[in-house]
Specification:
The complex is a heterodimer of chains A (422) and B (378). Chain A is of the alpha+beta class and 422 residues long. Helix content of chain A is 21%, strand content 18%. Chain A starts with 27 loop residues before the first helix and ends with a helix. Chain B is built from 13 helices and ten strands. Chain B has a five-stranded mixed β-sheet with strand order 1-8-5-2-3, with no helix packed on it. The chains are: A alpha+beta (422), B alpha+beta (378). Chain A: Its EC number is 1.11.1.-. Chain A: It is found in: Cell envelope.
Chain lengths: 422, 378
């Protein structure tokens, strides 16, 4: 996208709440989107970035300075898993990360794990579980992160290596976090255009990890709620609103460098080229939202439902005039201009985990945001949203995690986290 | 256990029976080199040779009858060596298996019903893979173990069934879990006799239509859920004892191979993963951890006997198994005050987080254990 920046001129100060801002995450997407837009600025829009849609079966290169799955054009599907490390042995953890890296290289290239899914010894279970046989790479990306608990004392000798930017998230008003859906020593984000490819990847990594890691929680996502490719259609969230209009574009190197990639000068050498990920499971009260009048819905988000245009504007991508929105509007509150320029790259997905036993859809947004420093990204934005967002009446944050996402794997000898353990 | 696990039962029997088991059947033109020709008709089952060299045996089947048929190779006690179902009229099929020397029957079942039309064949010669002395030792050791488990269990079963027959609820409750330990330790072998398990260890949800519910779990429900023993339950006690005597009598003759031992160990962990960790197995008595421990002990016994062979082929695997068995044993010990007793915490008192920890430990062991069979046969 393009626009990362603020624009339009609206004075930042506008924060007053009004009603609308909403979406943000609940819109999260939106709101944050807005956020994204703000700060930085400048972006490039690239117009051309439509490439993503072009070949949804292709392979995304695994090796590089940054991990794939962040600036990569957002794929259609998600399987995200958080793991507890069950071994106490540092060497075993390192061996696991090496094995995972090799498996990830193969799977992202569309190949089976190990010796494959068939043709091996008849007495042994196949290395690969097989359900992705015959499927294309589907732009699978696998992105690893390290949670704060991995750096705890008396675990793996990493207590001195914890980045300052990897802070524990504060408790925000309205949080109703389930410990069983929060935290984790490690995470792997699997994104692909084919859900079976994403599920296969997590399943096989989990299997390789057994005895050293155990899945703590996982989340499937079926509809991207933001886009890192400005030229493409902005997806809608479960509330029916376009979300993520103003996300950081995956091609906008300047914005990525400023807001997403951790730098060598940021204080943690092993994180240079990495990023910080915040994951939040945001349940939407779908049934009550569906009963809200259109005007209220639009006011809450600060955009109209059909086009997605900011209040008072004609087109989705018109720069929002924040003061025209209610002070509590999601877009307004989440906009970088309302948050000292705080800008994050959103990569969330809608989820529906069936119903909740009371006949209500267990649905919402699995919010994923990458940023250079959580203290200058998610935290200030969420503080503002948690305090004032009109959308809060219709959403609840029920899961939360934060991870340090290391830089990319350079080549076939490198592995996830090598610099951390160096 | 469950009443219906045809795949496991068949697999165990087949594995045990054969050195290698490929039991597969594929379509082919049915002619060939050395294949034994089987011509199945509605009223006959012709076999081209009654003497078959041991080793890799191929049956080329032609169905010249008017009904869909199936062809089996059976042990003298009717256990299945290999089979092929759904061979249509006028079609051909190929069945292959590794078969050791011995007497077998080939059965054609026109209409896929009944005992079938049978031919006895002799499989002869020494092509059966020669086993190493250490493999024979492992198998012999396991055979002894399996028999000993049955022998030690029967008196405990008697205590239980006597209490039930006498209508003594408290005494029966006390004797229940202990009466199951030997069975649980050797369950895959017991299950390989397809007929015993459904009589003694089926749960209510595993019953087939029309099947009478008998065995341990029916009595478990009466004792814990109903809190009383009716005339029907009392009458079932001697039946349970008799069925388990049958097990005791037959268990020593089970076909056991290093492969079946390794697979059996993995299956015991599967039992834990699907039945015990969830609390389904002992849903009334909540004695799941007793079964859990017994399953793990049985798996560990198989493993220890196979370890000298496996360690030579895959030392990293045995190191990992040693570690994970120890870790799971240590974890289970936290649920009993005395390491020599089987008095484990009632499973309804084990919380969600603790169950997950147990489940993770089972996965940690079962995953490498699934590689033991290959390490033994390498």
């Amino acid at each position: 996208m393009s626009e990362t920046g603020t624009e339009g001129g609206e004075p930042a100060g506008a924060t007053a709440p009004s009603r609308r801002a909403l979406l943000g995450w609940g819109g999260a997407g939106l709101a944050l989107g807005a956020v994204a837009a703000g700060g930085a600025v400048a972006a490039v829009r690239s117009g051309g970035d439509t490439e993503p849609a072009s070949d949804s079966g292709a392979a995304v290169p695994f090796h590089g300075a940054h991990q794939a799955g962040i600036a990569t054009a957002v794929q259609d599907r998600l399987h995200f898993a958080a793991f507890d490390v069950t071994t106490k042995d540092r060497a075993e953890l390192m061996a696991l990360l090496r094995e995972w890296t090799r498996a990830a290289e193969r799977m992202t290239a569309g190949r089976a794990v190990g010796e494959g899914a068939y043709g091996g010894a008849a007495e042994a279970p196949p290395d690969d579980t097989g359900e992705a046989l015959g499927l294309r790479p589907s732009r699978l990306t696998l992105t690893i992160g390290f949670g704060p608990s991995l750096f705890a004392e008396d675990r793996f000798g990493l207590e001195d290596r914890r980045p300052e930017a990897l802070v524990d998230l504060p408790k925000f008003p309205g949080d109703n976090l389930d410990a069983a859906r929060s935290g984790g020593d490690l995470c792997v984000q699997a994104c692909a255009d084919d859900p079976q490819v994403a599920v296969h990847a997590i399943r096989n990594l989990a299997r390789i990890g057994m005895g050293r890691t155990a899945v703590r929680w996982s989340q499937l996502g079926f509809g991207k709620t933001s886009s890192t490719t400005p030229g493409t259609q902005t997806p809608r969230n479960m509330m029916g609103f376009k979300d993520g209009t103003r996300n950081i574009a995956g091609t906008d190197e300047a914005a990525l460098t400023k807001h997403v990639w951790a730098g060598a000068a940021d204080g943690t050498d092993w994180m240079a080229g990495g990023s910080y990920l915040v994951a939040r499971r945001i349940r939407m009260h779908i049934e009550t939202w569906d009963r809200a009048p259109l005007q209220e819905q639009e006011d809450i988000f600060g955009r109209d439902k059909g086009e997605g245009a900011p209040v008072g504007k004609a087109k989705e991508r018109d720069e929002p005039f924040l003061k025209a929105m209610l002070p509590t509007a999601h877009v307004r509150l989440a906009h970088p201009d309302s948050n000292d320029g705080a800008t994050i790259l959103r990569r969330g997905y809608s989820f529906t985990d069936g119903t909740d036993g009371l006949g209500r859809l267990d649905a919402g947004l699995f919010f994923l945001a990458y940023q250079r420093d959580v203290r200058r990204g998610f935290i200030p934005v969420q503080r503002r949203l948690a305090a004032s967002d009109a959308l809060n009446e219709y959403i609840q944050h029920v899961g939360s995690a934060v991870f340090a996402v290391p830089p990319g794997v350079r080549d076939a000898d490198d592995w996830w986290g090598r610099a951390l353990f160096a | 256990m469950r009443a219906l696990r045809p795949s496991v039962v068949t697999a165990v029997a087949a594995v045990a029976a054969l050195t290698a088991v490929t039991g597969c059947a594929e379509k082919s033109d049915g002619k060939g080199d050395g294949a034994v020709q089987v011509v199945a008709k509605d009223d006959s089952c012709e076999v081209s040779s009654k003497k078959i060299p041991a080793g890799h045996v191929e049956l080329a089947v032609q169905n010249k009858g008017s009904k869909v048929t199936e062809v089996y190779v059976l042990f003298p006690d009717d256990r299945i060596v290999t089979e092929r179902e759904n061979i249509g009229p006028g079609t051909k099929a190929k069945i292959t298996a590794e078969i050791k020397a011995g007497t077998y029957e080939i059965a054609c079942k026109p209409g896929m019903k009944g005992k079938g039309i049978r031919q006895t064949v002799e499989v002869t010669g020494g092509t059966a893979a020669a086993r190493s002395p250490e493999m024979d030792k492992a198998v012999a050791g396991y055979r002894t173990y399996v028999q000993a488990q049955a022998d030690e269990t029967l008196p405990k079963v008697k205590v239980f069934t006597d209490a039930v027959a006498a209508g003594d609820v408290e005494a029966a409750k006390k004797a229940y879990a202990a009466s199951r330990i030997g069975w649980e330790r050797t369950e895959p072998v017991a299950e390989s006799f397809g007929d015993i398990d459904p009589k003694v260890d089926v749960r209510e949800d595993g019953l087939e239509d029309g099947q009478e519910w008998t065995g341990w779990h029916r009595l478990e429900k009466a004792l814990w859920q109903d809190g009383k023993l009716g005339a029907e339950e009392k009458a079932l006690a001697p039946t349970l004892y008799k069925d388990l005597q049958d097990w005791q009598k037959r268990v020593g003759r089970a076909d056991i191979s290093p492969t079946s031992m390794a697979n059996g160990a993995k299956e015991l962990l599967d039992e834990v993963a699907t039945g015990k960790v969830t609390g389904e197995e002992e849903r009334y008595s909540h004695t799941d951890l007793v079964d859990f421990k017994a399953n793990v002990e049985g798996a560990e016994r198989s493993y220890e006997l196979l370890k000298p062979i496996a360690a030579k082929n895959d030392a990293a695997l045995t190191a990992s198994l040693d570690k994970q068995f120890a870790a799971l044993d240590a974890l289970l010990d936290r649920y009993r005050a005395d390491r020599t007793s089987y008095d484990f915490t009632s499973y309804d008192k084990v919380g969600k987080a603790d169950r997950k920890e147990l489940s993770d430990a089972v996965n940690a062991l079962a995953e490498p254990l699934s590689k033991l069979a290959a390490a033994v046969t390498k």
